[in-house]
Amino acid sequence: MRLDLSGCGTALLTPFKNSKVDYDTFASLVDRQVDSGIDVLVPLGTTGETPCLEDEERIRLLQIAKEHSKGRPVIVGGGTNSLRHTIRSMQMLQPYGPDAFLIVVPYYNKPTQEGQYLYFKAVAESTSTPIVLYNVPGRTGANMTAETALRLAEIDNIVAIKEASGNREQIEKIIEGAPEGFQVLSGNDDDTLWMMEKGAAGVISVASNVIPAKMVEFVGAIRRGDSSAASSLNDSLAKFFKDCFVESNPIPAKAAMAALGLMENELRLPMVPCSESTYELMVNDLKSLGIL
Q1: pLDDT 10s digits, 156-186
Q2: For site-directed labelling of 122, which of 13, 36, 214, 262 has its Cα 20 to 30 A away?
């Protein structure tokens, strides 16, 4: 079982208005992504504040993403830190047509490598839908090693990994050892250039919420081997990539979207809107990129 998730994907923000999910705005944001040429849509991830969403909200967001995707793959976040809860989450979302599930390394539990292997093996065996592993130790407190990732890559419906460890040696081992058809995706915007030059298939981006067309241009330059254009674009975007994480994701990205008038600058506790200095930083970045 293989699924092409190459190119630029977007870890979609969840807009709120008066404490409720703003579904109309979410639909318009998905349309903006599609119109900008984004290759893959990823609702219900970390960037979407999924831990603070109710089940009915998660279902409706997936429905909208699928309805507006125009055939693009939709990878939906379904992972928790409990095997039973993860499987129940996947079973709840399955009827609404996800093309793959993004399953994060269980957070807070700090599982061993064998625990991670057995967990993801059980997750994969619970569904026929493709699984994308998600390694983000800065959020979860536990790293998935290259050896574990490659061991899991041999399971038929585990088709890719979103790698956000920032560990170059580890990531290169996964890329070099990946079986045919298994894709490695950058989970950090600022790792995209070197990872794709080493053989990664693409990126699941936070920045592309705000600057989808520029990210499509950037990833396109890498894919066609235009190293000069790719390097120039990377340099021009590097500060924005960094500034999107001056406060916890998705706080800065939501501030930038609010500055563009695309959504309310509203989050759900325990996340709160950014400081005044971060808002000014986002505004200045957008102005320097010629977007505001």
Answers
A1: 999 999 999 999 999 999 999 999 999 999 9
A2: 13
Instruction: Note whether residue 122 is domain-resident.
Output: yes
Question: Per-residue pLDDT for 1 more than 80?
Answer: no
| Domain span including residue 68 | 7-222
CB atoms within 10 A of CB 102: 26
Would residue 162 show up in a list of annotated catalytic residues for this protein?
yes
How many structural domains does the chain have?
Answer: 1
90 domain residue, yes or no: yes
The Cα–Cα gap between 118 and 115 comes to 5
Q: H or E segment at 100? A: strand 100-104
- Element (H or E) spanning 161, and its range? strand 158-163
Residues 66, 96, 162, 279: which is the catalytic one? 162
The count of other CB atoms within 10 Å of the CB of residue 228 is 8
Q: Which position among 117, 119, 134, 279 bears the catalytic label?
A: 134
Instruction: Report pLDDT digits (tens) over 61-82.
Output: 999 999 999 999 999 999 999 9
Kindly report the CATH number assigned to the domain that includes residue 103.
3.20.20.70
Contact between 256 and 282 (Cβ < 8 Å): yes
Q: What is the pLDDT of residues 226-235, one digit of tens each?
A: 999 999 999 9
Nearest residue to 42 (alpha-carbon basis) of 52, 30, 31, 32 = 30
- 134 inside domain: yes
